[in-house]
Each structure stands twice: as structure tokens, then as C-alpha cells.
Amino acid sequence: MIHRNAPLTPTGRLRLARCVVEEGWPLRRAAERFQVSHTTAARWAGRYQRHGHAGMEDRSSRPHHQPHRTPAAVENEVVRLRREHRIGPLRLAVRAGVAPSTAHRVLSRHGLPPLAATDRATGEPVRRYERQRPGELLHVDVKKLGRIPDGGGHRALGRAAGRKNRAGAGLAYLHTALDDHTRLAYTEDLPDEKADTCAGFLTRATAWFAARGITVERVLTDNAWAYSQNTWRRTCRELDLQPRWTKPWRPQTNGKVERFHRTLLDEWAYHRPYTSDTERQAAFADWLDWYNYHRPHTGIGGHTPASRVTNLCEQHI
Predict the structure, then answer these.
(1) Which residue numbers delimit the Integrase catalytic domain (predicted)?
(2) Which of 125, 171, 193, 217 is deepest in the core (most CB within 10 A)?
(3) 81-124: pLDDT as tens digits
(4) Integer Cα distance of 149 and 168 in angstroms
(5) Which CATH number belongs to the domain containing residue 254 in this structure?
(6) Which of 124, 141, 168 is nearest to 255 (CA)?
(7) What's the sign of the alpha-carbon dihedral 155, 156, 160, 165?
């Protein structure tokens, strides 16, 4: 990579070298013409004589001899430990007897990505994908969330008092449909995750997306019981959707909606102590509107989900 303050590009270096080597310009004249030092002019002229056009490109600054480089046997041990145990530089450093910074450099040198960018089950780099247009794929999943008893739970009252006040609160089943391309989300708080409940949610979700100009083509779910029943398949046929299912024990395939649920918990459900479930639910509509229309999404380059929907009304509010 050329330094941002470099006076010469490879093309400029070639012109300078040709002036000296082929046209016989004195080095100082060529240096003055191209506004560089005479030693720089001599270096590029010499490279042109030895290597021709190829010599005008940047070279690696790595030294030819590195007497203090980590021995190959140690590097191989670091790589082996990483692949077998899938641990990071700090733990690798302890096991291999090197500094954490050394372990990090070894991993980078061998092209091993950070653990956060790998699949936990296989250790292979995560293959990220994104559909090309809105509606091409809809991710659907359910998140179970403990309801807050009147008066508040342990987050508002503390663990001792919250434990006494939690009896009979039950669970909230948050059904979410999220568009793969835009990350636009639709969520309902429903009493259960039975087949009829899930099918009804899918019908309302596709209608919600249709009202925003998005025609859903496919729907992806996990292998939960409700999504494997005839009720779900029949609803997909009636809505002209192609049902898809993730591989067993591979929730990463439906990772976009899984990540949305994590955001939902961090930024709404557990964002502050609530004194009742009603209070928390009252805050949800505003949060979801903020997520869809105003919150920058790092997965889509800092844009908002609504900005990826063509001609969606209210997206600039």
C-alpha cells in the first residue's frame, strides 16, 4: 500500500526512471522535476535497470533475516492448540509458553480469524450471507421471556424480595419475524407457541410486511414442534410461501433473528427495572419503532432497517 504522503505512484516512478535510464537525464534534474530527493531518484532508476517495470511496485518492509522470530515448532504448537481447543491468545500463551502478543501474531500469520468470527461447533470461519432484496427470506423464531409480577421482580426489588414476588408470573412468548435483507422486524407477545398460534402470527406478519411494500417469498424457522406440523405447512401454502428449516443443532443458520432477540433483551426487556409486565409491554412499541426507523444497525453498514426498504413511508421521521 502506498503511503498517503508518498510523492510518487508506481506510474510516476516509472516516468522518473525512464527519464534517467532511457533519456539520460542527470539524477538531480530528474529529482527536481519529480520533486523528490536525488537518492530517491537513484533508487527508482536502479530498480528499473535491474527489474524493469515490475520494480516500480512497493515491496514488503519485512527484513530478509529475522533471528528473533518465534521458532517454527512453537508456531506449530500454537496453531495446533488453537485448532484442537479453540482458545484465544491469552490461554494459548500460557500453554505454549509465549507472550499473548506473540500468540496473536502467530494466529494472524497463519490466517486464523478471531474466535468471535468462527463457528463454535466446528471452529471454521463463519460464512455470512445476506439476501439480495426485501422479502426474499423471512426469519421467524420465538423468544421466551419471564413476565414481571406486579410490584416488580428481582431487578427492581433485589433478589430476596423478587424471589418472594415471582410466583405465578408465567412466561411471555415473543414471536418475531425479521427480514433478512433489511433487518426490519415485527414482534408480537403471545400466550404460547402452539401450532395455531405460530400460524396465526405468520399470517399477521406477512400482512404487516406487505403493508410496507415487502412481499415475503420464503420463511426460515428452526425445527420446533409447531413449525413441523401440517398447520404451519398449510399456512405457508395459503400465503404462497416456501417454508425452510435450519439443520438440527445449527441455530446459527437463523442467526439474524437470534441476534435481534439478544438486542431486544439488552435494549428493552432488561434495559431498566420495570415494576410490572404491563409497564414493560407499554415501552415495547416505542422501542420497536426506534429499532426499525432510527437505530443504526452495524450489520448493514450503520443504516437503519427502514432505509433499506424502497419508498417506505415514515422512514425519515
Answers:
(1) 130-313
(2) 193
(3) 998 988 999 999 999 999 999 999 999 999 888 887 776 666 77
(4) 8
(5) 3.30.420.10
(6) 141
(7) negative
